[in-house]
Each structure stands twice: as structure tokens, then as C-alpha cells.
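Question (not urgent): is this output format expected?
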Amino acid sequence: MFIRALFSLGMGILVLSSQAEASIKIQGSSTVGPIVVKAAEILKSNKDIDIVVDTFGGSAAGLSSLASETAQFGMISKEISEEDKKKYSNVHFTTHLIGSDAVAMVISKKLYDQGVKSLSLSQLKEIYEKKITNWKKLGGPDQKIIFLNKEPGRGTWEVFVKAVYGQGNVPSISHLEVGSNEEAKSKVINTPGGITQLSVAWAQKDPRVKVLGLSIDGKLILPDEHSIRSKKYPMARNLYLVSSKPLNDGQKILLDFLYSEAGQNIVEDYGYLRVRQNTK
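Got this back:
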């Protein structure tokens, strides 16, 4: 069997090629991507499956690739919205829950050590709308705030704006944009005064990044397991594979593995929360 593999957490493309009958193209969220890539690497050793994993374009691309029938699975790190359903009204999406996570607001360790520890949602809104522009007003140093905004359409961005704006209109504000989790993490580390939205699992793996607590109704809420599972943390989210057609043999094999103990161990190994019960 000939196998060719290429994967970058920034670009996010993995190809496992063999002379297989079963074939899966998977596209979408860079948050979900590492779980699927690791599962594919394990399965390639004993299953004849051609697997292509691509995280370019994030969750939005996960849904659009199903609509265009260029992928068999989409990866999303958000809920499918009413807007999504209207946009793809001729597509029947089926979600397969494989884990859960949360979006955190993160800054560099240096800025954290200078006094910035938490924000309220109203302060976060004012930062986003450029009404608060200096960390000095928030207990930090006299330094300009640089908001590094996730690209619209990314699951991380959608979870963020839902927490901050609810069902209200999101104003069009010009910010520097970042794409994948890896890019967002790198940018916030290397941008003085930077703040961005990032998967909690990615933030916790790098000591150069610090997660800010959120002040909700006078209480400090951290994105720990209890707060994420109970949804007390306002930017908790589920991680899904999404299908739009009857599952082929390769898809069934992948899902069975992800729901197994070994598959859920992968979810946990990457810092995400496992599914408590089999959701098939």
C-alpha cells in the first residue's frame, strides 16, 4: 500500500492515499481537524480508506463543501445556525457530536502578568467596537489594544459574536484578521497588546498564552470542564462531524472509531472534552 501524507495545522491538509475502495474527503474547522487527522493516521494502518482532511476555510467551508458535494464530512466547531439552514435550504445536515470545547479570549503571558486577568462581556464588546483602546483602562499597562479578529465564518468567531451580541446585529468593524488556531496563537504571542479568540485546548498547551476569565453577573467564570459542560461559560461549544448523505463504509468506520474508547482518548489528548455517551 502506498501512503502519502501532508498535514500542517496552519494550512491543514492531510492526504492518506492507498488503493482503497472506501474514500472520504473531510473539510472544515481547524479546531476539529487534529482529532480527525490523528484518527485517520491510526486507521490507515489497518483499514483500506483514502482520507483527505483540509482545514482551509474553517467551519463555513465545512458546510459549503457538503452543499457543493466536494466533501463527505464537514468539520464544525459551532452549532448550525438558522442562517446556515436558510443558506443551504436544499441540504439536510446531520451532526455527529465527537467532543466539546470552548472559545477563550487570550493574551500574551507578558500582558497577563502586567495585570490583565479578566474581562466582562460589556468590556469585550467595547474593545471589539474600539470604544476601549488602551489596556490601562482595564488594569493593565499603558499600551494600545490590538484586537486580532477571527475570520467571519470561522466557528470560533461565530461562538464569540453570539456570546457578545446574542441575536443582535454585529457591527462591521475593521480589525486585523487571523485564520486557523495556530495562526491566532502565534499572532497574539508576537503582537504587543494583542488579544484574540482561541480554542481553550490550544491556549492551554502553550505557556506563552494566557486565558482571560469572563466576569458574568459579578462572578468570574473560567472555561474549565464544569463550566463548559454546564454551559455556564458563555462561549462553550460542541465539536461535530457533519454529513449530508447516507454514510459510506469509510465514514462509518471513522465514526465508529471516534466513538470508541480509543477515539475518545484522542479527543481528550488534544485537550477537548470527550462525549459522555455514545451519540450515534
